[in-house]
TrEMBL record:
Keyword Nucleotide-binding (UniProt): yes
Matching PANTHER family: CHAPERONIN
UniProt name for this protein: T-complex protein 1 subunit alpha
Gene name, Swiss-Prot/TrEMBL: CCT1_3
UniProt KW Nucleotide-binding keyword: yes
Pfam families: Cpn60_TCP1
SUPFAM superfamilies named in the record: GroEL apical domain-like, GroEL equatorial domain-like, GroEL-intermediate domain like
InterPro entries: Chaperone_TCP-1, Chaperonin_TCP-1_CS, Cpn60/GroEL/TCP-1, GroEL-like_apical_dom_sf, GROEL-like_equatorial_sf, TCP-1-like_intermed_sf
Spans through the membrane: none
UniProt xrefs under Gene3D superfamilies: GroEL (3.50.7.10), GroEL-like equatorial domain (1.10.560.10), TCP-1-like chaperonin intermediate domain (3.30.260.10)
Keywords: ATP-binding, Chaperone, Nucleotide-binding
Family: Belongs to the TCP-1 chaperonin family.
Tree of life domain: Eukaryota
Length: 304
């Protein structure tokens, strides 16, 4: 059986070779040069103006690159690299962009000398493993051996390029206390600090200095009614995933009523079913109720 060969029609031009490689490296170098002057303790701030005239002044690499309208595909990779670094670590966004651009620049020179890209990649990976090994053996210091003052200074350094740099003394201590509060030891005896165990709740209308560390679990929600107490101790919390509103028939269910006097009994039974649910919660000893659904006004009166 013979098959007819069909040409896949893809719109656009396909380019390859040293010229294209050099263009990609040049684009990455241009992005790195933009943020290079903002690196370090004497780094300069950048003034960015967007399309509608809003002005942003910052020396945070991730913020600068996020506000730039980068169109070159290779340069966009560096922008995504900075965003990933900011999301995973929270600092070092400018450094990773500059290092990546320099590695690309060096790799481009090696390709010019007829070294295959696969060999260059293998060499970079080997260098990465050796660098990590050296840092772990020679430079890394266990957190337990550092005093709190050293940890606070590390936090201040990371905050120096952020919007809260003016209040770094206040927030650095809070950050160190929060991280130490989630310290845990796994089954293998390794000490871990699960950063995802720390949540941030934002409240409008107050100063940043009003921030505080709550050693517990916080929900950004309010009381269902003003008459409810502000503090309950000891609390026995019932977490619900169903409504505390009047019970209603499901969609598609029809009730035929021949006697109008039965309507009031039906409405009363709907309210009684909700009261029975509430009574079971109270009988179980719950004095705080968290629900992902609604609460009827009648239920609020009954729960007080």
């Amino acid at each position: 059986m013979a098959y007819s060969a069909q040409t896949l029609d893809i719109s656009g031009d396909r380019q390859s070779g040293q010229d294209v490689r050099t263009q990609n490296v040049t684009a990455c170098q241009a992005v790195a040069n933009i943020v290079k002057s903002s690196l370090g303790p004497v780094g300069l701030d950048k003034m960015l103006v967007d399309d509608i005239g809003d002005v942003t002044i910052t020396n945070d690499g991730a913020t600068i690159l996020r506000m730039l309208e980068v169109e070159h595909p290779a340069a966009k990779v560096l922008v995504e690299l900075a965003e990933l670094q900011d999301r995973e670590v929270g600092d070092g966004t400018t450094s990773v962009v500059i290092i990546a651009a320099e590695l690309l620049k060096g790799a481009n020179e090696l390709v010019r000398h007829k070294i295959h890209p696969t060999s260059i990649i293998s060499g970079y990976r080997l260098a990465m493993r050796e660098a990590c090994k050296y840092v772990e053996e020679k430079l890394a210091v266990k957190v337990d051996k550092l005093g709190k003052d050293s940890l606070v200074n590390c936090a201040k350094t990371s905050m120096s390029s952020k919007l809260i740099a003016d209040d770094s003394d206040f927030f650095a201590n809070m950050v160190v206390e929060a991280v130490q509060a989630v310290k845990m030891t796994n089954v293998r005896g390794e000490i871990k600090y699960p950063i995802k165990g720390i949540n941030l709740l934002k409240a409008h209308g107050k100063s940043a200095k009003d921030s505080y560390l709550l050693k517990g679990y916080a929900l950004n929600t309010g009381r269902a009614a003003q008459g409810m107490p502000l503090r309950v101790a000891p609390a026995r919390i019932a977490c619900l995933d169903f409504n505390l509103q009047k019970t209603k028939m499901q969609m598609g269910v029809q009730v035929l009523v021949t006697d109008p006097r039965e309507l009031e009994r039906i409405r009363q039974r709907e309210a009684d079913m909700t009261k029975e649910r509430i009574q079971k919660l109270l009988s179980a000893g719950a004095n705080v109720i968290l629900t992902s659904k609604g609460i009827d006004d009648m239920a609020l009166k009954a729960s007080r």
